[in-house]
């Protein structure tokens, strides 16, 4: 497998970085090719803007997705985006490795999503969900957070973590057609002992070694909807 | 009322910008004070990093929220963050005005959230949800998107829009204690006629003029949970 790890954490010595390194080593040890995009180290630019295109289909009015679609065809998309897009297209598995900020990805990683998941390649028209442009690839979300396990789930104070992650898991990764594996979550990280961190590293390693057996999450398929994307009615019983 | 509009769109002539201007004029016309943070025009820096602190509580290892908490007390938080935080604390109503990118806020706005919702002021310890540091303020999310109305809702292809917005509405705005009003949504914006846009502007203006009557969304309250944040059991009937 070709594996891309997209990593975003402002502290190079963080536990999140240890998860990144462990994933790279473990997967390389299994004979996979691994690339890492360390967005903070790269000083990646997270801001989608007119400057992302050397020439514009419409220089007077920016519709970002339209310029992506035209720009990627014409080879006039910013070099940093094209580089990341090439890595993404090369990858069979993409691991998103980050600390949860506001129940979501850090802005740095959101900017990678905004800029690199280019319209016309990753999605467009009726190419989304199971028909998305990245169908056939797997996605794994690996995150660290401050909260405890019992604060999430049905009836818990924040509700199910998967519900908070919905725009990422469903609205982004499943939307572009990726097979989305259940997230790997390290809880309460800033407050736990060295031993508890080692436990997370061991269980992450085991998870990575058995990734082939993982069952992907379920999301909508376009065949369940009509041409105008209304849900198909099931015949009454 | 003091009103802060946080606006993030890469095209100054966009319909989203028209919504911003309409909100500013309408609310000023009612005698309210209005400030606008136009993040693209300000070239706002969305990246949370060690550079946000002139001195660090722990110079060897960055825990961002901890440095926020210590930095804001000691007056050593970056000037651009302090300026935005001052506007936020001044405001009675904050309007978040943006195009939906990947069922979420653009990275530019996510960075404002990551950096400006400072730990120790906006939340911290048991100060969240109804006990959050921004209790007493109202939040309105005003967004534009490409999708159509019928693609959202129970059974629709993307499910309810509020579910996609959960990390923003609940995990961010309700979390810091704000009273979260139902979002104002302009659908299918890149594809609609001038007249359809005028309709959205008229209905937005009416909504803003009647904002006092808006009923806020419901979210958890800390009194429903015990000291360790486990849900309190209801007595069996």
From TrEMBL, chains A, B:
Domain named Flavodoxin-like fold: residues: 1-208
InterPro entries hit by this protein: Flavodoxin_fold, Flavoprotein-like_sf, NAD(P)H_dehydrogenase_qn
Gene3D superfamilies per UniProt: 3.40.50.360
Keywords: Oxidoreductase
Stated family: Belongs to the NAD(P)H dehydrogenase (quinone) family.
Protein name: NAD(P)H-dependent oxidoreductase
């Amino acid at each position: 497998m070709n594996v891309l790890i997209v990593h975003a954490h402002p502290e190079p010595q963080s536990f999140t970085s240890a998860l990144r390194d462990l994933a790279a080593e473990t997967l390389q040890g299994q004979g996979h090719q691994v690339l890492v995009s360390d967005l903070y180290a790269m000083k990646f630019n997270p801001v989608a803007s007119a400057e992302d295109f050397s020439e514009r289909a419409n220089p007077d009015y920016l519709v970002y997705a339209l310029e992506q679609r035209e720009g990627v065809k014409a080879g006039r998309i910013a070099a940093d985006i094209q580089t990341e897009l090439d890595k993404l297209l090369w990858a069979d598995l993409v691991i998103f490795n980050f600390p949860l900020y506001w129940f979501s990805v850090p802005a740095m990683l959101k900017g990678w999503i905004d800029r690199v998941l280019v319209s016309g390649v990753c999605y467009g028209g009726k190419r989304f969900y199971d028909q998305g442009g990245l169908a056939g690839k797997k996605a794994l979300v690996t995150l660290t957070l401050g909260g405890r396990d019992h604060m999430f789930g049905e009836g818990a104070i924040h509700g199910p973590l998967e519900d908070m992650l919905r725009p990422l898991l469903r609205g982004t990764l499943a939307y572009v057609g990726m097979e989305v594996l259940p997230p790997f979550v390290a809880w309460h990280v800033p407050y736990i002992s060295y031993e508890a961190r080692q436990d997370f590293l061991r269980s992450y390693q085991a998870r990575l070694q058995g990734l082939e057996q993982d069952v992907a999450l379920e999301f909508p398929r376009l065949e369940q909807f009509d041409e105008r994307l209304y849900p198909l009615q099931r015949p009454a019983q």
